[in-house]
Amino acid sequence: MKKRKILFIANEIEKLLPKVDTTVFLIQQAWVEKYEVWFCTLENLGINTSSKLVYYVNANNLIPGNNCKWFRREKLVKVNLLSFSAIIVRTDPPFNQQYLLSMNILDFVTEKGVKVVNSPESLRKFNEKLFALRFPEHTPATLISSNKTEIKNFLKSKKQVVLKPLNLMGGQGIFLITNGDNNLDTIIDSTTNKGRDKIVSQEFLVNIKGGDKRIIIINGIVERYALCRKPKKQSIIANLAGGGIASIVKLSQEELEIARSVAEAIKEDIFFAGLDMIDKKITEINITSPTGMRQIADHKSSYLGSFFYDQLMKL
Question: Whole-model pTM?
Answer without folding.
Answer: 0.92
